[in-house]
Design goal:
Blueprint (H helix, E strand, L loop, with lengths): L2 H22 L2 E9 L3 E10 L3 E11 L10 E3 L16 E11 L4 E10 L6 E10 L2
Antiparallel strand pairs: 1-7, 2-6, 3-4, 3-7, 5-6
């Protein structure tokens, strides 16, 4: 193998290692809460204060004591807030969002406030946030 060919292989290996390292630094955190009928609830996550490129997903489904549960439905995470995507879950809505970065304690908080307008159905709400690390 020639010296030029060895250099090209070394450069390609370096690029592959850097690409894999970047993918390994992408992380995800999730939290889930129950929202009682006719109530408001806040769902939140604590992330490192250096987390960047936040990509939040807010989903809801009916809670069942026994038997299968419904599929997850997407809820709005940006203004204008409002009801969730599925007509079956139109009685639950996102009210506000809040993001607090506190470098003093090394954490940042991302939170969503929701309202369950159903008179009888309890809902599961799940917040997942994918983020990168420097």
């Amino acid at each position: 193998m020639t010296q030029a060919c060895s250099r090209v292989l070394a450069i390609l290996a370096g690029i592959a290692i850097l690409a894999c390292t970047g993918a390994a630094l992408a992380m995800e955190s999730c939290n889930q809460v129950d929202v009682a009928p006719r109530s408001d609830a806040t769902i939140s996550l604590l992330l490192p204060d250096v987390a960047n490129d936040l990509q939040a997903r807010l989903k809801v489904r009916d809670t069942h004591e026994s038997g299968p549960v419904d599929a997850w439905t997407t809820c709005p995470i940006a203004a204008p807030y409002g009801t969730c995507a599925s007509p079956a879950h139109a009685d639950i809505s996102t009210i506000t969002t809040r993001r607090v970065v506190d470098p003093a304690d090394g954490m940042q908080l991302i939170a969503f406030r929701l309202k369950n307008g159903s008179a009888s159905l309890k809902r599961d709400v799940r917040l997942c946030v994918q983020y990168g690390m420097p």
